[in-house]
Every structure is written in C-alpha cells, then in structure tokens.
Write a structure and sequence with these properties.
The complex is a heterodimer of chains A (89) and B (362). With 89 residues, chain A is α+β, with helices and mostly antiparallel strands. Chain A has helices spanning 26-35, 41-44, and strands at 3-6, 19-20, 55-59, 62-63, 79-84. Chain B is mainly β. Classes of the chains: A alpha+beta (89), B mainly beta (362).
Chain lengths: 89, 362
C-alpha cells in the first residue's frame, strides 16, 4: 500500500502523520491525506487545487513535474514525499 | 495615550507595551514567520476584543490566525480564498498571494485587501470569507498591474465612519475605488492623480494610478490623504477629486502617510529620495508634517538618525494613535521609532527588529 510522508517542517503548524492509502494516483493519495487532516490541504495545495509553487513532491525518488492535474500513477509499494522546494540561498 | 501597539515583521509579530520610559517589546508571536498584517483587538461590536494576524509562509501559503486573548494564544482561522478560476479567465491567477491589509468596518465586519487584487469580507471574524465579486468582476480589474509585487493588490481600506455603506480603496496599481452602497457598485475615485510611469496620454487615467497608501481622517471623513508613487495628493470631497500637494520639502516620494484622527489638515509623511533610490535624503531620516492641509510643511528630525541612515518606511510602517500625538514608525531595515508629541521628537524603540511591514496601535 502506498505511503505518503510530509516534510517535518510542517510539524510547526500541524500534525502530519504518515498516511497509508490504496490510492492509484498522487491526487487520490493527497485527498486521502487531507480527509483526516483538512487543514493540511491549504498548506500543500492552493485554492485552485494546484501544488503550491514552493512545495515539491517525489514519488519513489522521482520529482513530479506536473503541478496541476497531479495524476502521476502510484504503484502498490510507492513512497510519496511531500517536501519544501528549496529556493534562494 | 495609547498603552499597546503591534509591529508586524518579516520574522514575527511583536507586541509593544507602554512603560513610563517609553515602549517595551512585551511579546513575540509567530517568531520566524512573515506576518504581513495584523488587526489589533477590535474596540466594539460582536467581536470586540478579538484580533487577527495574517501570515505569509514562504512555502505553505498565506494563513490567518485569530486571538481572543490579545495575542497570548492564537488559532488558525480560514484564509481568504479565491473561487475556482474559470477556464481561460484572463488576468492573474485566482490564487491568494498575500493578505495586504485588514480593516474592521463600522458594519461589524472585517475586510481584507489582498494580492492579486481581491477584496474579501467576513462577518464571523475569519471563520469564513467572501470575495466581493462586484469589484473582482469589474472589467477594469484586468487593466490593473503590480506595483512592488508581480500582481496588483489592495493595500488601503478606508471605511466612512458615519456612512457604513461607503468605503474607499487604494490599489497598486489600480487607482482608488469607492462604493456608496455597501459594495454593490464600485466606481473609480482617483480623479486628479497623476502617473509619470505611464505614457503621457494615460498619465491621468484613474485606473492605472499607484497610490502607495490612502488614509482618511475619522473626524473629518471627507478629508483623505494619499502618498502616491508620483507625489502627495489630498482630497477634501470624500475622494471625488484629488489635488496634488507640491510643497513638501526634501522629496514628495515615499510610501507611508498618517492623518490626525481629529484634524484632517494634519498629516505626516516619510520622504525618500525617489522611486529609483528608496533611501532617506542625504542619509538622514526625516518626517514631513503639515498642519494646514499641505500649504506648508515642517521637517521633523529630532531623535532620528541623521547620518548613514538608509531606512525605508514602507506603506503600513507609520501609525498615528487616536490622540494624534503618539506616533510609531518602523523601517524595512528593522528600525522602530516612537513619538509622543506629534513627531516633534522621536525615540528609538529598537534598531534590531526584523524588516517591519506594519505598525498599529490598539
């Protein structure tokens, strides 16, 4: 079952326990994460449902390029990391 | 004499308490996080005593927090959110970039001015927000553009203290707008402002003006002041027309303006050299004060650094207390000064705060 892990930086603002979900896509996995933690949604996505400009998602070590549809497929053993995108210096 | 004030900075919100010797920093909230604006505890109405702070978290978006105990504890509330953007809708993305200003209004609500140009209001103190679509849907909005940011924004909300249905907004860059029917209809209200950054034939177009800040006198609400990108402007007819004031010494460029709550002819400005060089003239920090509606000014320097000073006071960085005597001024390099005599003399509160976005009494 895929796992979703959130950057510990978010712990300053809210609890972000690891989520296990049988989601088949990234969007489904994020939706499952938000279902039990509704405030988290606004930290990861903007109000149009797009990945925030300075948040980055890795699936099994591969950086997701699409920030809008979020339909990257997940495998049964995928690991999703939701992290801060580093910018600046 | 005010007993409490607030300083919103790039790295937290600071509460000031009045002591015999001056202001003391009594508490820091949200330390490390950018606080773009605060609303001090509201004085009256259904939400009396409650306050708000708007955060602009770099990675995780703009947030809004509410306190019911004057900043001792905070709870995250809803943040103004734009509705779903229709496919192909022109203009900036319908995404909240920043809460730029918060204003309690006589109707018991709170209004929020935001980047990219939406006005929001809440009747339940942040539990839910509504976009004022009558303004957002104006076709002229698509001609607005960013001034200091990539997208346009509302930084000034001036409710009319005696007519709850009336409000004037300042927008960079989108001029000034006024409603007289509680937000059902909006009309441009920047006649007389001049934009040197536009082609000559558009210099007086009301919808492209860059009013850095607009403030209204509470006792004489027909009198408003505007520190504009291209000078100082004044209205004595509730914003219907604006007259340029060209008598300010040093420079008429700046961001901040404050008006005396009881005397609409008295206002304060913090001049910078020019838009292309945003530092004090000759490295010496000064405040310009008029007490006769702009016919003349005094330049006030006592207690302010007079050499090697490069502090810039941003648009929300100057506050005037209800008594018209106590002032606070905070800079983008973390300098904070106070006056208790209308600006005649100043005392440094701190020279080591983070960059200051806003100062407010209350």
């Amino acid at each position: 079952m895929p796992r979703v892990l959130f950057t510990p930086q978010l712990k300053r603002f809210l609890d972000v326990p690891e989520v296990r979900t049988d989601a088949a896509t990234l969007r489904q996995a994020l939706a499952a994460s938000f279902a039990g933690n509704p405030r988290l949604k606004g930290y990861v996505l903007d109000e149009q449902g797009h990945l925030r400009a300075n948040v980055v998602v890795f699936i099994d070590g591969r950086r997701c390029q699409d920030r809008i549809s979020l339909d990257d497929p997940l495998g049964p053993d995928s690991t999703v990391h939701v992290l801060q995108a580093l910018s600046g210096g | 004499m005010p007993q409490r004030a607030w300083v919103a900075t790039r790295k937290g919100l600071f509460e000031l308490q009045r002591q015999a010797e001056g202001w003391r920093i009594a508490r820091a909230s949200f330390l490390g996080d950018p606080v773009s604006m605060l609303l001090p505890p509201v004085a009256e109405g259904p939400h009396a005593g409650r306050m708000m702070a708007a955060l602009n978290l770099g990675h995780f978006g703009a947030k809004l927090h509410v306190s019911d105990d004057a900043g001792a504890t905070w709870t995250e509330a809803a943040v103004p959110a734009y509705p779903p953007q229709p496919d192909g809708a022109p203009g900036p993305a319908w995404k909240l970039v920043q809460v730029w200003t918060l204003q309690a209004t006589p109707d018991g609500r709170v209004h929020a001015g935001t980047l990219p140009g939406g006005l929001f209001r809440t009747a339940d103190f942040g539990a839910s927000w509504t976009l004022v679509e009558s303004l957002w849907n104006k076709p002229e909005r698509l001609e607005w553009f960013g001034g200091g940011y990539d997208v346009p924004g509302i930084h000034s909300i001036c409710p009319h203290p005696e007519r709850p249905a009336e409000m004037l907004l300042g927008i960079s860059c989108g001029g000034a707008w006024r409603t007289q029917d509680g937000g059902e209809h909006w009309a441009l209200s920047a006649k007389g402002m001049r934009a040197d950054f536009m082609p000559p034939e558009q210099a007086y177009s009301e919808n492209v003006q860059d009013p850095h800040l607009i403030v209204r006198c509470q006792a004489e609400p027909d009198k408003l002041w505007c520190q504009h990108h291209n000078g100082i402007f004044r209205s004595i007819d509730d914003g219907a027309t604006w007259q340029e004031v060209t008598t300010a010494p040093l420079s008429s460029f700046g961001f901040a303006v404050g008006v005396h709550p009881a005397d609409g002819d008295t206002a304060w400005f913090v001049p910078g050299v020019a838009d292309q060089r945003r530092v004090p003239v000759d490295g010496a920090l000064a405040v310009n004060r008029t007490r006769d509606g702009g016919r003349s000014f005094e330049t006030l320097r006592k207690g302010l650094p007079q050499r090697d000073c490069y502090d810039l006071v941003y648009r929300h960085g100057l506050a005037v207390a209800d008594d018209g005597r106590a002032l606070l001024m905070g800079s983008t390099t973390g300098g904070l000064w106070s006056s208790f005599d209308g600006g005649d003399s100043w005392q440094a509160v701190s020279n080591t705060l983070p960059p200051i976005y806003a100062v407010r009494f209350g």
